[in-house]
Design goal:
48% helix; 281 residues; mainly alpha
Length: 281
């Protein structure tokens, strides 16, 4: 069969090589910024967060890489995560979260201030320190525990945290609620189950995810209207949950015993108050 000649306009056309889709990280980065804003005042550092993240990815990949005998194929985990097999083995066999402790410079300063005999009194309490003194003063404390970070920057951060009281040339540690909350991430506990549910929903096919997540944003003009809307939404949400609980438990289709329930269905209501910044004219 004779091959048909191509038109002259198509003879010298060069085909562009197919390029892989460029990933978009905008939504994920915004979500991580919100996490960072909540975790940073609690003492979380990028290094520790990165280690926790690596551990989470390794364990997630391990669940997908189990052999028939139940053992984990560490080479497959390394291939999925991009980590070395040595790192995979270390993260799979670490003792627990305590082995990942990594303090920020500010935390190291506070710890040294409470434990180092140079900066504590006879009763073991943190001394009041002269700020710029290089021998047993606050500057000495920072140089010993915060490395090359200027002592003024550390002092400003401690002051912003409410962890110290500054008067004249002296600084005194405060036993404030803010310092007691350091490294305490239990505040995330109420968020754990709803966030896990939401991630599993959006990871499912779109046909399943679309109707299961509903959002209503109610704009209001004044603080008085905001208070009214907030109270009404709380009242309606509570009534809805109570009504569902009562009507579903009375339904004969539900099992009487929930010990061996194979499935469950969760309903979460999140009421969030937002303050939108008004642009200046």
């Amino acid at each position: 069969m004779r091959r048909q000649a191509l038109p002259s306009s198509q003879k010298n056309v060069k085909r562009k090589p197919s390029q892989p889709n460029v990933p978009s990280y905008g939504v994920l980065e915004q979500l991580l910024r919100e996490f960072a804003a909540a975790l940073l005042p609690r003492g979380m550092t990028p290094k520790l967060f990165g280690e926790l993240s690596r551990s989470a990815f390794v364990h997630a990949a391990a669940e997908r890489s189990k052999l028939r005998n139940g053992r984990v194929n560490q080479s497959r985990v390394a291939a999925q995560t991009g980590l070395s097999r040595a790192d995979v083995k270390r993260l799979l066999h670490r003792s627990g979260p305590e082995s990942l402790i990594d303090q920020s410079p500010v935390q190291r300063v506070l710890s040294g201030w409470c434990r180092d005999r140079l900066f504590t009194d006879r009763t073991g309490n943190a001394k009041r320190l002269r700020i710029s003194l290089r021998n047993r003063g606050f500057r000495h404390l920072v140089e010993k525990y915060a490395g090359d970070i200027p002592y003024r920057a550390v002092l400003d951060e401690l002051n912003n945290m409410g962890a110290v009281t500054v008067s004249a040339q002296y600084v005194q540690m405060r036993r404030s609620e803010i310092t007691r909350r350091k490294n305490d991430f239990s505040f995330l506990a109420p968020l754990s189950a709803p966030l896990t549910d939401a991630l599993r929903i959006v990871s499912a096919p779109i046909s399943r995810a679309a109707p299961l997540i509903q959002r209503l944003d109610l704009p209001v003009a004044t603080e008085v209207e905001l208070a009214i809307v907030k109270d009404r939404c709380i009242e309606r949400a509570t009534s809805m949950i109570d009504g569902l609980r009562n009507s579903m438990t009375e339904n004969v289709t539900l099992p009487r015993s929930r010990r061996n329930a194979a499935y469950s269905f969760a309903i979460t209501v999140l009421l969030a108050e937002k303050h939108t910044a008004i642009p200046r004219r």
